[in-house]
Amino acid sequence: MGGKIHKMTPIILSKWIDYYRKLKYFFNTHDYQIVHSHLNANSTIVLGIAKKANIKYRIAHSHIDKSLGSKAYLKSILRKGINKVSTKRFACSQQAGKWLYGQRSKFEILYNSIETNRFIFDSNKRLEIRKKLSINSNEILLGNIARFTPQKNHTFIIDVFNSYQKINPSSKLLLIGEGELSSLIKEKIYRLGLENKVFLPGALKNVNDYLNALDLFLFPSLFEGLGIVAIEAQANGLPILITDTLPKEIDVTNLVERMNLKENSMEWAKKINFLINKDVIRMDYNKLIKTSNYDIHKNANFLMEYYLSLK
Q1: Torsion, Cα of 152, 155, 157, 163 (10° steps)
Q2: pTM greater than 0.85
Q3: Nearest-angstrom CA–CA distance, 162 and 188
Q4: What is the distance of C-alpha 52 from the center of its chain?
Q5: What pLDDT is stored for residue 69 in this prediction?
Q6: Helical (H) or strand (E) element with 23
Q7: Which three-class secondary structure state does DSSP give residue 192?
């Protein structure tokens, strides 16, 4: 569309001064009136530099509702400054907004968006993908699409699938994605003797095609700002089992069931068995998502109009 992409070095603590200088120079040598930062707590850094460069409109956007590991303390410090440097605050869910801006701060929900037409259930694609994976029509295929990181809880997914094997030994599992825990997950799969039951194709661009092949989407993340893949799964008409602490904005349709992670893997497996045996007309659900707040065309128009109103 004629837009320009400028590449910056990543925000690394050891190279903070270099980052600060480069971004300050960029803002001072380019005539931008609006900066919209999607870097969660790190938006404090970006928008702080933008403020010093006298950029009038500085938008923060929160996409997560928690931070783990060694960086959590640093993120908690950065979050304290976000309201001082931003002129507008967006979040993908209430939980994500309260995490970044505070319980009493004002912010607006701008729902993460999908191209709904790409996720309409396609029975021909289902046959094609299942044939490619050598899955028979009577076999149940569970699945998850996510980075292999602690947040996404793949170890528990393997435990649940291992328990479900006791209920349905002919079932299979598809895990699309890659990440720092890939080797650990593969080791666990082999240790449990599931190597012929679990498919690990890596990161794929056509995940919409693979959703057609699934019978249930398993989503036991420890936390999510929203979890857009759960919306995509619903647009495909898939039953979905998620952690009960995830944002309520996920529940767009009646396909979503929630469970507590304190429940053991066998209880999750029993719930899966119940959900799979429910009759669902998958084609019908795409219309529900399209008329919800998650259609990309609707939200793109909203954001364009918002930018123009500032100008």
Answers
A1: -160
A2: no
A3: 11
A4: 32
A5: 62
A6: helix 16-29
A7: coil
Token pair, residue 54, equals 């006298």
CA neighbor of 9 nearest in space, from 42, 51, 20: 20
Task: Report pLDDT for 290.
Answer: 85
Please name which of 80, 30, 39 lies closest in space to residue 60, comparing C-alpha atoms. Answer: 39
Q: What's the confidence (pLDDT) of residue 288?
A: 87
**pLDDT at site 282:** 85
**Which stretches of the chain score pLDDT less than 50?**
none
The pLDDT of residue 307: 95
Residue found by looking up tokens 């509702």 in the block: 65
Phi, psi (deg, nearest 5) at residue 176: -95, 125
- pLDDT of res. 77: 85
**Sheet of strand 256-259: strand arrangement:** 198-202, 172-176, 141-145, 216-219, 240-243, 256-259
Report which of 128, 136, 129, 183 is spatially closest to residue 155, judged by C-alpha positions: 183
> Residue 241 belongs to what H/E stretch?
strand 240-243
169 close to 139: Cβ distance less than 8 angstroms: no
Return left, alpha or beta for 28; rule: phi > 0 is left, psi -120 to 50 is alpha, else beta. alpha
Nearest to 268 by CA among 137, 136, 130, 142: 142
Tokens 């995509």: give the residue: 232
- C-alpha span between 82 and 103 (Å, rounded): 13
pLDDT at 73: 75
pLDDT of residue 70: 61
